[in-house]
Design goal:
About 0% of the residues lie in helices and about 40% in strands. The protein is an all-beta fold and about 130 residues long. A hairpin with a 2-residue loop joins strand 4 and strand 5. The protein starts with 6 loop residues before the first strand and ends in a 5-residue tail after the last strand. About 10% of the residues are buried.
């Protein structure tokens, strides 16, 4: 089995089994694909009040003064959090779209060209930014 190579098994979507050898080759898909990254572990999980899927999470990499900020969008809500030194996340701002037909899917950080203040740009299904 596998020529004596160390293998890792993982259950994927729809309950299908996928086997990875030590070179990161998946036997299920003919050797294409990579093994999951090692050395990462879940340290914090946040559930937002709307309890719907989050479609985008973006850390502020535009302004070094605010490198501890990240934003999430999902459903009709955009949120900005500050990552605290103890690993907690503090909610700083919550924007809720009033149009019930809108679904927010993406966000990106930018800067005000005049003041240098951070901007959070959000976009959704109806095409507004």
């Amino acid at each position: 089995e596998g020529g004596g190579e160390a293998e890792k098994k993982e259950e994927g979507r729809r309950g299908m089994k996928r086997t990875w050898n030590k070179r990161g080759k998946s036997r299920r898909n003919g050797g294409k694909g990579r093994a999951p990254a090692r050395g990462f572990r879940l340290t914090k999980q946040i559930e937002e009040a709307h309890r719907k899927p989050i479609y985008s999470v973006q850390f502020n990499q535009i302004d070094i003064r605010h490198k501890d900020l990240f934003a999430t969008v999902g459903s009709q809500v955009a949120s900005v959090y500050r990552l605290m030194p103890d690993g907690e996340a503090e909610l700083l701002l919550r924007f809720e779209e009033e149009n019930e037909n809108e679904a927010l899917y993406t966000c990106a950080w930018s800067l005000d060209p005049d003041t240098g203040a951070p901007w959070l740009l959000i976009g959704g299904a109806l095409g507004g930014i």
